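Protocol step 6 of 9: fold each sequence in the batch and record its structure tokens directly after the sequence line. For illustration, a two-sequence batch is reproduced in full.

Sequence one:
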Amino acid sequence: MRRAPTAHDVTLLLQAWGDGDKEALDRLAPLIYRELHILAKRFMSRERRDHTLQATALVNETYLRLVDIHQANWQDRAHFFAICARAMRQILVDHVRSRGSIKRGGGQQPLQLEEALVMAESPYSKLLELDDALNRLAALDQRKSRVVELRFFGGLSVEETAEALKTSPETVMRDWKMAKAWLHRELGDNQNGA
């Protein structure tokens, strides 16, 4: 009976792939696909049900972006999934922005006022607001922004986040609480027109 791969096995394959071993990527892909799909499903669970991007497409797009990285310095499994979470966040934000540019023209017929009002209330704008707020938070405190990205978008546990950021779980919890309060205030102010 074959044993399940450990986090250490994944780390060794990531490091070999980062060093240019193409066969390591072939062995790694089936080991990480399920976890990437779970991560993508977490992302997509926060989106509208009729979102045009599905979890499998998000995984595939993330995979394509990662395959293009040459000579990556993958530290470990947590670091890899942190990079995946950032890539997925960026893919979703890019997707929303491209849909927004289509809605604002993009070679299409102008929208009627009623259609524009319905689209203005779209949950897509909330993702952009969150992304903008996280970028503002990163300008003030990069680590707190990364904690939110890893915990909220990446679904990493406190321990995995601490490992990825090379800090203690206590620091992660403190940063997580402070960042959530800051984001709540920022996003609340935006919703009130401030």
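Sequence two, same batch, same settings:
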Amino acid sequence: MARKRYPTLDRSEPRGTYVTTMEIVGTLPITYNPGANKRLSYQAWLTALDRAAQSAAARARPTTSRLFSLRCELRLYTPANGSDLDNYVKPIQDALAKHGVFGETEFVGSSMNGDENVDHLDLRRKRVGSPKDAGVLAEVWALEA
């Protein structure tokens, strides 16, 4: 008897070339939440992201690609289960896009600042034992068209 085959995702890494890395250590990642984004802890997270993204952009290797892969390891200190993993991505992408890591925006006047060029996202949670180990490691790769 033949086994029924189910559709599966392509789990291979997309072909690409390394562009840059952004790392933050010792700052707790905070999830994007439109209703609570005025909190001091969230503002501190955005400031840390901005500084790290600016540094990553300064070190970025030039590319003519318009498509990118963002690979993130969230290092979370969460005594409980923590928050939805996807809610951490927006401020990370926005910070990198603000500093031009994903190229220029294609849509003039759009709220997207280049992060629409991210075609691949790999996101992992790593639970750490202390707030001093919390943060994020993000790699940006230029994808082959």
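Proceed to step 7 once all outputs are recorded. Observation for sequence two: Residues 40-59 form the longest helix (20 residues).
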